Amino acid sequence: IALTGTIVRHLMLPGLLFDSKKVLDYLYRTFSDDIYISIMNQYTPIKGANLPVNLQKKVSWEYYNCLLDYAVNIGIKITLGADFKIIMLFVIVFIKEIFLSVNICN
């Protein structure tokens, strides 16, 4: 199934959860459901590179989950097609089960 429209891919960076939330706020406030939003956590630091401390690690699953949860709470439909949506919902539910007692989102 082909999708029509615009897909915005947001690469979450470690230590910048607040900034990612602001990006999602802007995108949703400006475009609502007129765009598709893909939130990515694939950032991988390059070994030996002279990077700021927060960029010397990968994005943690806890923070990625917080951003996905935030996106859903403000009304964003995280989707790139039905299969992707099912996978994302599974990941959200699975991670919430693991980290139910940990609240790092605030």
Describe the protein's architecture and organization:
The protein is 43% helix and 11% strand. It has three helices and two strands, in the order βαβαα. Helix 2 crosses helix 3.
Radius of gyration: 14 Å
Major sheet details: 2 strands, parallel
**What is the number of beta strands?**
2
Q: Give the % helix.
A: 40-55%
Low-confidence stretches: 80-86
**Which strand-content bin applies to the residues?**
5-15%
- Helix and strand content put the structural class at alpha+beta
Average the pLDDT over all residues and give the rounded result: 77
How large is the count of helical segments? 3
Salient structural properties:
106 residues, alpha+beta, two-stranded parallel ribbon, 3 helices, 11% strand
Walk me through the topology.
Elements: E1 6-11, H1 17-31, E2 35-40, H2 61-74, H3 82-98
Parallel strand pairs: 1-2
